[in-house]
Amino acid sequence: MTKQTETIEAQVKIFKALADPTRLEIIRYLNQLDHEVSCGEVDRAMHIGKTSGSYHFKILQAAGLITARKEAREKYVALDQSTFDRYLTHFWQN
Amino acid sequence: MTKQTETIEAQVKIFKALADPTRLEIIRYLNQLDHEVSCGEVDRAMHIGKTSGSYHFKILQAAGLITARKEAREKYVALDQSTFDRYLTHFWQN
DNA sequence: AATATAGTTCAAATATCTTTGAACTATATA
DNA sequence: TATATAGTTCAAAGATATTTGAACTATATT
């Protein structure tokens, strides 16, 4: 696979992950908090069920937009700013 | 509708428009040319049919990512850099 | 040990997106 | 005028994405 094709596939994954109102709201929420929070806390703040939350977190994580850390029962998520920088701020450099 | 909701809807539209490999390739193509071209020329360069091209141009235009100008039989498209600046480069300011 | 909590997985239902050919409008050319 | 070209619209088919409840795993608490 060529380098340009790899880049396009990665970009598509990022943009698909951002192309949903629930996920954009999660991202805004994580950004304004600026520290990691549990999935449950996000679910409650977004007024979504845990099943739906789990689905969205998986997509955000696969795109590299959030980091996740599991501690005992809970999973803590936070923004991965470097991905935003690379794919949004520096869009034309890819 | 609140301002934040408006912003999110606009962002969703932009990101959906970018969340497709054909449309990303169109955008790269328009960017490297850096001048307007006819839809037909883009269709041929992307190896897509005119029906499919028309569909993608409509989505890109509705998102504000391209400008379009009709001259006689032909429609000329070009990137609208200001939208990329506003929604990608300055993502966190929205 | 029994129960509660945090999160995941699965499958079914629904909604949304993309491709395609055929028919169409409008303009250009022989 | 007849024909060709550029692009749009429509509808049908197929592909993807999202929501939901039920069942599940793993950890915490009584």
Automatic annotation (TrEMBL), chains A, B:
<dbReference type="InterPro" id="IPR011991">
    <property type="entry name" value="ArsR-like_HTH"/>
</dbReference>
<dbReference type="InterPro" id="IPR051081">
    <property type="entry name" value="HTH_MetalResp_TranReg"/>
</dbReference>
<keyword id="KW-0238">DNA-binding</keyword>
<dbReference type="InterPro" id="IPR001845">
    <property type="entry name" value="HTH_ArsR_DNA-bd_dom"/>
</dbReference>
<dbReference type="InterPro" id="IPR036388">
    <property type="entry name" value="WH-like_DNA-bd_sf"/>
</dbReference>
<dbReference type="Pfam" id="PF12840">
    <property type="entry name" value="HTH_20"/>
</dbReference>
<dbReference type="GO" id="GO:0003677">
    <property type="term" value="F:DNA binding"/>
</dbReference>
<dbReference type="InterPro" id="IPR036390">
    <property type="entry name" value="WH_DNA-bd_sf"/>
</dbReference>
<keyword id="KW-0804">Transcription</keyword>
<dbReference type="GO" id="GO:0003700">
    <property type="term" value="F:DNA-binding transcription factor activity"/>
</dbReference>
<protein>
    <recommendedName>
        <fullName>HTH arsR-type domain-containing protein</fullName>
    </recommendedName>
</protein>
<feature type="domain" description="HTH arsR-type">
    <location>
        <begin position="3"/>
        <end position="94"/>
    </location>
</feature>
<keyword id="KW-0805">Transcription regulation</keyword>
